[in-house]
Amino acid sequence: MGVESTGGIQVRLAVEAAGACPVAASTGGDTIGRSATWSTAGEGEVVEEFDLVGDAEAADLPDEASVVFETDRSERVRFTREGGDCICEAVERLGAPVTDVSASRGTLRLSFHATDVETVRAAVDDLDAAFGSVRIDRLARTGDGEADDMVLVDRGRLTDRQQEVLETAMEMGYFERPRSANATEVAERLDIAPSTFAEHLASAQSKVLDSLLEGSA
């Protein structure tokens, strides 16, 4: 007897989290973090590990961090932190286990699977409220890849300003890896404050998300 599919959604979010996540904070320049894992150590503490690829001496690691294993290409870093105040844990509190974590240039990327649109929206809203500057890197539904699964996004949902923000960010390479422009530079091009840019971008992403998920339902 087979297991019934819920028609789930594969999500990858990017959070500018250098000030909130030790893994993201450790990355800069060509240094990257990947394969992060964590476990409860008791008394509200969490032990976390990740692979640091690049110049470990230049990395901004937690004071209590230690290298528990190393190869020619990477070092396995372990540290202890307080539980609860974590980007990945915020997503997992919604009932969606994080499946992959990586970081570069202060940005954390985490992947998970959601069973419905509401979980995706809640994850974006919760992370934006707690950590700020959240964007959707990837979004795919079960069965994506066939011609019949193509989704049209209704651009009419966007205001002229929101569309301008998205187009300018795309043109300047804000969504590229690595980025060609940061939020401040895009905001300067648009002649708006960085906080206003973040607000317009969040609203535009929310509308695109609604249109995409409704169209693929």
Automatic annotation (TrEMBL):
Classification via Gene3D superfamilies: Winged helix-like DNA-binding domain superfamily/Winged helix DNA-binding domain (1.10.10.10)
Tree of life domain: Archaea
Record keywords, A-Z: Transcription, Transcription regulation
HTH bat-type domain residues: 158-209
Domain DmsR-like N-terminal: 7-141
InterPro entries named among the record's database cross-references: DmsR-like_N (IPR056433), HTH_bacterioopsin (IPR007050), WH-like_DNA-bd_sf (IPR036388)
One Pfam family it belongs to: HTH_10
Parts of the chain that traverse the membrane: none
Protein name (Swiss-Prot/TrEMBL): Helix-turn-helix domain-containing protein
Organism: Halosimplex rubrum
